[in-house]
Amino acid sequence: MASKNGMGKVSSIPMASRHMSYWDMFATWVGANANNGTWYVGGVIAACGLVTASTTLVISGIISYLLLAAAGFMGYKTGLTAMTLTRASFGLRGSLLPSVINLVQFIGWASVNTFIAATSMSFLFHDLFGWPVYGKPGGELGVIVGIAVMSVFHLLSVSVGQRSVQMIERVGIILVFVFVVWETIVVFKTVSFHQILHWQAPKALRMTPGAAIDVLAAFNLAWVTAASDFSRFTGVKRNATQASFLGANLGLYWFAFIGVIATIGTAITLGHFDPNNSDPSTIASKLGLGFLAMIVIILTSTTANAVNLMSAGSALTNMTRRLSLKVSLWVVTLVATAVTFLPLFVASFLDIFTVFLDGIGMVLGPEIGIFLVDYFWLHHQDYEVDQFAKINGRYWYRGGVNWIAILTWIISVGCYMALKHVSVIANTIGATFVVIVISMVLYGGLMKLTKSTPK
Questions:
Q1: Does the residue 207 lie in any domain?
Q2: Range of 34's domain?
Q3: Interatomic CA distance for residues 113 and 298, integer angstroms
Q4: Where is the protein found, in the record's own terms (predicted)?
């Protein structure tokens, strides 16, 4: 079903055309999180110690992916992409804001995964051709060639579209499972669980629980804004909600936990902890996992980026209203390739990654709070698809923009920045989830107060 009334074509996937099974959805979200980016995040929060890192991992995963399930339900009910759905809460033109946020964040995530995979390739090139590994003099060559090779893989993947995601996840999840079991065995052969349990990072490098929750929330919530892009391809509610929740959490716990114990195990083995060495390639090399490990790390980049690039392409299509999804996918893939080179010339990968995560947490939480409250509370799960492109229609608001949503977003971002300086919040529960609640209450209250929502 499609609607075109002056603001670009809106396509809703009809139930009869939805063929994504429970396993497909489950595998998509396992694969989205069972990747080198999740491993790297696990390595970052290892600075909390095993107990705190594991606790924050579980709490953040449950909260974040309940929101993912809710957003997945929206896609299942409407058949619309995530960014198209934000037209109802932000306005037809106002949805440009969440679309820009999504475009930037998923290009960023694609670049993160590509850089980690390219680092793995530098280790492969070292074994094959004797090139220096990344981090050594002349090691940039291997990364540059690796970025180019990975970008070709990604272009081939996005050219097939949504079906490529299913194919990649089905194959990738099996190989990833074998690799993670293998690495777990190697870690515990090298270091005992008792040693890992009682290890603590040096005081100067230690991370608070609140900081860990904010890091994990920024990582997890990115997927919430992509949920509908995939759940719209299934005609069964539990595929969109339950499969998404379980798959995303399994991938998160599985790979982030491996990142935690591998980073701690490496720190114990080497006698020092360096957060810059938390990436999978460096750890796998230091654990002696060799050639096959690097191949699997490269594969996981492709599984994750199949989701990242699909979501970035959907956001660009919603912004331009003219580009087809396939053209948008090519554009975002090429832009992501260019962005991937930044750590080679600007700053360390960890520095760029940390700034990136903090920016995501700041802007993404309010967006999620607004569009979930709008659908579930204000509109009672009843969006009119034929109004999503209609000028002066139900979701036009004032000049195509819902200024209450924009105001709520701005205030909430300000609250996030303020709460990061309130130690009792920032060091314990973090600012991200608090700000999501603030945005929900503020947006819902203002919309009711001004009677801006149709009855």
A1: yes
A2: 18-212+224-343
A3: 9
A4: Membrane
